[in-house]
Structure formats: structure tokens, C-alpha cells
Design goal:
The complex is a heterodimer of chains A (174) and B (313). Helix content of chain A is 72%, strand content 0%. Chain A contains ten helices and no strands. In chain A, helix 2 packs antiparallel against helix 3, helix 3 packs across helix 5 and helix 9 crosses helix 10. About 10% of the residues of chain A have low confidence. With 313 residues, chain B is α+β, with helices and mostly antiparallel strands. Chain B is 24% helix and 27% strand. About 16% of the residues of chain B have low confidence. The chains are: A mainly alpha (174), B alpha+beta (313).
């Protein structure tokens, strides 16, 4: 992978960001951030990673490391924002281009994820969207792999019964 | 009970509808370097403090301790968070590359990044406005597509049309533009509006908003039914609320002046001349599709027209 082969740290960081940016932004959206919050969160995460890029480089698994930074930063962000008014959400401006179905889908998924506990939401996003392995997710979350498994099982059961998702194609009851 | 694969399909499908912008590389580097400098500054300050204390106490060896102040420890670096060597399931394989969005990058940045990804870059030029000169305004394949390493990516780079007024937006006009953006973010605020505001998208979709309705967000919508393949309404205030900066000024606009620098005619009630400020929006849904918002301001510094443009300039 070019990111691993590059020798210049700035170049390596640029490449890493170029490759991961869309997934990081979308993962941030799925864990509950608005568009603006997601951008701020990912930017803060990557600045922290840039400052400590030598540690990121030394990490056996950069993605697990970066998502751990992202989740820690998100917790800090939420703590800071807990006493403030939540800004108006500007979701689905783009949905107009994708049709009503896209807006309905993202709304249903956001609602279902919002009903999960934060811990369950994080593990669902890391495993099912970012596609981290169980071990990577465990590293990113700072919990044992067994905890990842049990949280996933409970979350999947809850999502299977979630009323928001019931009418979606491919998610109807079997 | 749904399967893990069901969940993967669901989340990926939903997430694919979230628009993403190009990573702000320069901002990341700027911020990162600033943090590094502040860290070095703190270290230098701490070292100096040690020297002073040592001198004061007369040889006692003291060491700095406590919180470094403005720059705290990195959340995930307090302990080395990862020891696994497992491969990242979701990263692109070495043979296939996910095309990043190059919109807004300067040509050399886009070329460098794409070449680092193992892609071949083909540059074509297209006339554009001041704020899009020398930056990528379109690309093919679009962002998000996967392409084999070595395949070609065409980037269209804006070249100055040569007839724009590229001067900075004057403070007074900038104030109006910023007030308008603030109004878009919170329509309950009153804005610096003229008795009526004309709203338009291109030359086909226009409507006038009466002063009494100006603070009603529902009035700031254009029905785009019949506009190409689009349907439904466009929420102009939502679009404006995503703006980053006023970016371009065209002066001496009047109803009789229909310059090629503007895609659309200014509103007819722009009597006596005025200015058009093109607000650069952060929101776009693909590289081939971008929105701009023009504010038409008369000599009394009132907004008399808002024009939303879709597509490449």
C-alpha cells in the first residue's frame, strides 16, 4: 500500500488522510455527529495524529489507533457540548439529489443507531461500517475482544427489532 | 434476527448518502504545525524555568511537572493503543484505489495526491471564476469510484476567465454577505433586506419573496420540479448556511449589464447599479456538481436578489 511505503512523514500523512477521509467522516456521522461536527471531529482527530505521527507510524495497526483517537476526541467533544444547545441539524440537504429514499434510509438508520447505547453504536459502526476486525475494534475501543462480540450480538438483536428499520428493503423480518 | 452482513449492507448504503468534502490538507498541516510549535514553545519555556529555578535555589535540581497547558496529551497516545497486526479489512487493496475527491485542490496538490495513489493524472482546463482559478473544479472518475492502480483520472482545472473583478470584497459588502449567511443559519434573526427579495435558480426558476415572508424559512425554497432530472424543493437558506466565505465580487452590475461573468441576469429592481457577491458554498454533492449563491446588492446596500447556481461555472 503506498501509505506504508512512503518515507516522508508529511507525504505519508497526506496519503493516509486522502484514503481515509470519506470513511472517517461517514463513521463520525453514523456515531451521531452532524455534518459540521463530523468535519470538526475528524479534523481534530487527524491533527492529533499528525502531531504524533511518529507514534501512529509505529502502531501495528494505524486504523485501530486513529479510530481510538477519534472516539476519545468524540467523547471529549460531547462532554464539552453537553451544556450547550445542540446546533440545528442540516442533514439531508444532499438527500434531494439522491431522492426521498436516500433521506428515508439515512433517517431510519440514524434513528436506530441513536437508540443503541453509545458503546453499542461505536462497536456497530467500527465493525459493520468501517469494517475493522474484532481485534482492531477491541483495540480502538480499549476493551477485550469478548466485549466487542457480546456488544455486537446485543446490538444486532436490537437493530433486528428496531421499528425504524422494519420497512426498509433487505431489512424486513424473516 | 438479521445477520452481520445485513448490518454491513445497511450501514454502508446509508453512509454512502452522506456527502463528503475533500480533506482540508492545508488546514490540517497548519493546525498540526501550530500545535507542534506550541509544544516546542512550552518545552523551551519549561526548560528556561528550570534554569531560573536552579539558579535561584542555588544548585538545586528541579524538574518541571504538571499539565503542559494549552496542549494536552493526545487522547490515544497516553498508552500505545494498538498491538495487533491484523490487516485492516476496510482499506483499499493494493491493486484497487478508491478515487478521492479532488475538488478544491490546487492542480499540483491533486496531481501529487493522485500520483501517490498510483493513478495517472490527465489535466484539462476550463474557464472559471477567481476563486476557482488553478483549482480542480471537476474530475472523472468521480470520488468514491474504485479504479485500478495506473488508470487515468481526468482533473479539470479552472483557468481565470479574465473578466472577473478579483478584488477583495469591500468591508461593507462583506458585512452584508456575512449577515445574510447568519440569517441563513438562523432565520429568526432579521436580515438587511430590501422591501422585496428576488430568489432564483438559473433563469428558469424564480420567485419573489415579500418582505413579510422574508423571515419565513419555508419561503426560501424553490420548487425544482421539471428542472432537468431534479424534483422537489431546494432549501436555499440551508445551502447558504453552509457557506465558508464570500469569495468573489463583481462590481457595477446593472439590469442593462448582462456580463458573461455572471451566469444569470441581475434582478430588474437592481436600479442604479450595484454589486454581485458570489458566496462560495461548502456544500456540494459531487465533483461535477457545485452550488454557488450570488447576492445582488444595490447602491443602498440592500439585498435585492439572491441567485442560486448549479453546475460548473
Amino acid at each position: 500500500v503506498p501509505a506504508d511505503g512512503a518515507s516522508d512523514p508529511d507525504e505519508e500523512f497526506s496519503l493516509f488522510v486522502a484514503e481515509r477521509w470519506p470513511t472517517l467522516i461517514r463513521a463520525a456521522r453514523l456515531i451521531g455527529c452532524s455534518a459540521a461536527e463530523a468535519e470538526d471531529l475528524v479534523q481534530s482527530t487527524l491533527v492529533k495524529c499528525y502531531v504524533s505521527w511518529s507514534r501512529v507510524r509505529r502502531a501495528d495497526d494505524r486504523d485501530a489507533y486513529v479510530y481510538r483517537v477519534l472516539l476519545n476526541t468524540h467523547r471529549s467533544l460531547m462532554r464539552r457540548m453537553s451544556s450547550r444547545e445542540t446546533p440545528a441539524e442540516l442533514t439531508h440537504i444532499a438527500g434531494e439529489d439522491s431522492g426521498v429514499d436516500a433521506a428515508e434510509l439515512t433517517t431510519a438508520v440514524e434513528q436506530a443507531l441513536a437508540r443503541l447505547t453509545p458503546q453499542a453504536r461505536h462497536v456497530v459502526v467500527l465493525r459493520y461500517y468501517v469494517d475493522l476486525s474484532e481485534r482492531q475494534a477491541a483495540e480502538a475501543l480499549g476493551v477485550p475482544a469478548g466485549t466487542v462480540k457480546s456488544r455486537l450480538a446485543r446490538a444486532l438483536a436490537q437493530l433486528s427489532e428496531d421499528p425504524s428499520l422494519a420497512g426498509l428493503p433487505g431489512w424486513s423480518p424473516r | 434476527m438479521k445477520t452481520e452482513d445485513d448490518a454491513r449492507v445497511l450501514l454502508r448504503d446509508a453512509a454512502s448518502h452522506y456527502p463528503t468534502q475533500p480533506p482540508p490538507m492545508r488546514r490540517l498541516f497548519d493546525l498540526g504545525r501550530r500545535v507542534k510549535r506550541r509544544r516546542r514553545s512550552w518545552l523551551a519555556g519549561a526548560a528556561a524555568a528550570v534554569v531560573v529555578l536552579v539558579a535561584t535555589v542555588g544548585g538545586l535540581l528541579l524538574q518541571p511537572s504538571g499539565d503542559p497547558g494549552t496542549v494536552g496529551p493526545i487522547d490515544a497516545t497516553e498508552s500505545d493503543p494498538s498491538t495487533t497486526a491484523a490487516p485492516t479489512d476496510g482499506t483499499p487493496s493494493p491493486q484497487v484505489v478508491e478515487i478521492p475527491s479532488m475538488y478544491g485542490y490546487e492542480q499540483h496538490e491533486a496531481t501529487s495526491l493522485l500520483e501517490m495513489l498510483g493513478l495517472t493524472v490527465v489535466v484539462s482546463n476550463q474557464r472559471a471564476g477567481c476563486d476557482q482559478a488553478d483549482v480542480v473544479i471537476d474530475q472523472d472518475p468521480p470520488a468514491g469510484d474504485e479504479a485500478p492502480m495506473g488508470s487515468a483520472v481526468v482533473i479539470r482545472v479552472g483557468i481565470p476567465a479574465g473578466i472577473y473583478d478579483c478584488a477583495p470584497v469591500p468591508p461593507e459588502d462583506r458585512r452584508i454577505a456575512e449577515a445574510f449567511a447568519a440569517f441563513a443559519a438562523d432565520p429568526s434573526l432579521s436580515g438587511p433586506f430590501a422591501p422585496s427579495v428576488a430568489l432564483g435558480l438559473g433563469n428558469e426558476f424564480r420567485k419573489a419573496i415579500a418582505r413579510s415572508d422574508v423571515t419565513d424559512p419555508s419561503q426560501w425554497r424553490l420548487d425544482l420540479t421539471g428542472y432537468a432530472e431534479r424534483s422537489g424543493a431546494l432549501a436555499v437558506l440551508d445551502l447558504v448556511a453552509t457557506h465558508t466565505a464570500t469569495s468573489e465580487l463583481t462590481t457595477d452590475v446593472s439590469p442593462s449589464f448582462c456580463p458573461s461573468t455572471l451566469r444569470d441576469e441581475p434582478p430588474s429592481d437592481l436600479t442604479g447599479g450595484g454589486h454581485a457577491i458570489r458566496m462560495k458554498t461548502r456544500h456540494y454533492t459531487s465533483c461535477a456538481e457545485l452550488w454557488t449563491v450570488d447576492l445582488y446588492i444595490n447602491d443602498a446596500n440592500e439585498i435585492v436578489g439572491v441567485n442560486v447556481s448549479l453546475g460548473a461555472p
